[in-house]
Amino acid sequence: MPSLFPIFRSSRRRFDDLDPQEILALAILSEEEDGRIYAAYAANLREAYPTSAAMFDTMAAEEDEHRRTLLDLYVSKFGPTLVPIRREHVEGFYARRPLWLAKTLPLERARAEAADMERQAETFYRLAASRSTDAATRKLLGDLAVAEAAHERRAVALEEGLSTGDEGRQEEETAKRQFVLTWVQPGLAGLMDGSVSTLAPIFATAFATQNSWTTFLIGLSASIGAGISMGFTEAAHDDGKLSGRGAPWKRGLASGVMTALGGLGHALPYLIPHFWTATTIALCVVFVELWAIVWIQNRYMETPIGRAMFQIILGGLLVLATGILIGGA
Predict the structure, then answer these.
(1) What's the whole-model pTM score?
(2) Cα(95)–Cα(104) distance, integer angstroms
(3) Lower Cβ count inside 10 Å, N or C end of the chain?
(4) Rounded to whole angstroms, how far apart are CA atoms 108 and 156?
């Protein structure tokens, strides 16, 4: 039935409106794209996670085999010219991540993504098979639905097996170590710098002026300036190729953002006009920040809790006292 409001009509095709030729063409192009995605996963994971990379290599090869089988059926029925239809042309059809983004997914996300991809493909093939009136096409699509379901179960089983086996534990340890090197370590350094180094200027200004707005402006400029400086320093001093610490932009982002947040934590209370109320809240925030740093050091860097408390809390309190004494002089 024609739409009563053609101006609001979607430019995408409904799946129910596709003919058998378009469904087969869509299946061929979908298998081709999935194969490329699995190959990208394998290439991205091969050096650090060879077992998972081998799984994705196998899945890429099987997707290519599905593509060839579908293509043979298509050529025998409709000739060698494929209908130019893609996922994005069909309303409600499942989407895939862009290939450049698929190449950067971490291990756990890649495994979970693979299971989702196979589940979506199974649903598509079952629906397509139910609409097909040609016996050969219906059989092939049904067989592919079963194959995709088996892929999903295998991906989930392999993920569960890896999580308990020696190879899985080794891969998980590698992933955890890379996460710490790329995100936690520079982020922790930034948080320490932002939280501790801004204590003296912010509280010196606070006690020297006893003006909340002036203190906030000093704290804001110090925090953002320190964040920019730390971010660029972290990104520029190590490209990560030899150290294995990960992409410089990731480390720079972690360091810069956490540096700025560390300073802003005890600067933001000075948006409160009443000076002593703002100062009391800021001191409480400082206490929370220092304890957060101690917890992160103990949790991710495996620093003994006593040593972390001595280094961070004592050092932070000394810097805080310095700022208060200088500001009150």
Answers:
(1) 0.55
(2) 18
(3) N
(4) 11
